[in-house]
Amino acid sequence: MNKFITATATVVALATATVVPVLAQDDRPILTIGVQSLSDGFDPSLNISNAGQRITASIFDKLISRAYWGNESGAGAELVPSIATAWRQVSDTQWEVDIRTDVVFQDGTPMTAEDVAFSFGEQMMWGPDRIYKAGSTYYGTFTDVSVVDEDTVSFTTKAPDPIFPARFTSPLGMVVPKAYFLEQGIEGFNLKPIGTGPYKLEEYKPDEYVRLVSNDKYWGGLPPAREIIFREIPEEAGRITGLLNGELDMIVSITPDQQAFIDSSGVATVKPVVIDNSRVVALNTFEPPMDDKYLRQALVWAVDREAIVDALWGGQNRIPHDFNFVSHGEDYLADRPNEHYDLEEAKELLAKSDYNGEELIFRIQGGYYANYEQVAQVLQQQWKEAGINVKIEIRDTFDEVTAPGKHMFAHSNGVQIPDITHPLVNIYGPEGIRVRSDAAGYSWDPSPEFLDLISKLETTVDHDARIGVYEQLLDILDDERPQIELFQAMEYYGVRNGIEWKPYSFWPMDFRSYNLKFD
């Protein structure tokens, strides 16, 4: 079957951006954003966190974009052109992607098909000695990426790939300059990135601020801001004060109890959005007694998620099924049973386990997730009621959170590709972030049966058969319980009046001309 995808109406904003009247550079405003944390750099593979993606989205462009802006909620799932202009399936295992020829990197170097092929090729993404360790999570189905001509790149997969175009919407869907990347190496590139995006890195002061400046030669038109400054302000009160006194134009990570106060200020309003990311408690199955699945099951059933959501978010956010999200569209299994609070069931499961009252260490990163200290305290009390003794340890960094000695830790699952393979594959697939032994979140070894099913999920084209494989995977996770799904994240952005901007249902903050305007 031959499939050909071209630009659609939803991407008109991108295609027509170049006709926006060009303002004198000095007339454009500086946008200053208060964030709870800054990333440690800007390489896409090293900064998949919420702190990282909100910045890398402005420095880089993806090969194919997900049209988050396509509906009022910011959760659009349609795939639209970006660096790629069109893509077509030429055989069961081969695709061709046409690319723009008018794109230059932020140093003035023209982007070429060779740069695209390198960005998703064996050396970078999926070979045994790949530079991006997480690359095979997204592109492990590839066997060849090669240049056809100056505006065409060929991709070959090891088996039919039912979600080939969607793969490029992942956090590693960015195009990087081959020669410069190899010259700098991943660590050098992390601190001195060059992309094709609308803003380029100008200055970085760790733990203080990141300053981006307009890429005036951006292929998508003149960016609406002259500069974007991300200031690290860990305390929520400091971010709110800065927003209301005019020092900041936007802030992130507001707790819902502050929404009415900000909305009534006459200075700014809060824009809440449900994120395609769920807060979870990852269970370290390598640390006894957490190797006992009955204990893990008891921990799940002891959690009253609805009570947490009602008390801390006013019931605004969503309680997902394990790895089964509404954003999966027609593949969302709405009728699948979802674990729920049952204290007696938790106690019965605990009685089946070998747990003897040992203190279990639960680590979280302080101030990183809004309200999470309170969430941890509620969880601690709920587990206590079931007879499980948990100690909370608050750490400053994720590396400290995942250091040896923890039984469980705060983590998240992100729907990074709009398909049922995610977040399942990037969390618990063969190269998943909690399965790979060199990953910080390493906490579970899935069975060969589970990994075989993952492979089938990624290569099965028949829809009904694919859903059957998906349900088998979910059944195994329901039994093994390597994590506790809590609730989908809510992000509350504070935005100064006079700024028109839409938040999306994932972490990137988009400041291109179709999503940012100033009065």
Automatic annotation (TrEMBL):
Pfam families per UniProt: SBP_bac_5
Signal listed as a keyword: yes
Single GO term (MF): peptide transmembrane transporter activity
Keyword Ribosomal protein in annotation: no
Signal peptide: 1-24
GO BP terms in the entry: peptide transport
Solute-binding protein family domain segment(s): 78-427
Keywords tagged on the record: Signal
GO cellular component: ATP-binding cassette (ABC) transporter complex; outer membrane-bounded periplasmic space
Protein name, as recorded: Solute-binding protein family 5 domain-containing protein
Top-level taxon: Bacteria
Compartments, record wording: Periplasm
Spans through the membrane: none
Family to which this protein belongs: Belongs to the bacterial solute-binding protein 5 family.
Alphabetized InterPro entries for the sequence: Peptide/Ni-bd (IPR030678), SBP_5 (IPR039424), SBP_5_dom (IPR000914)
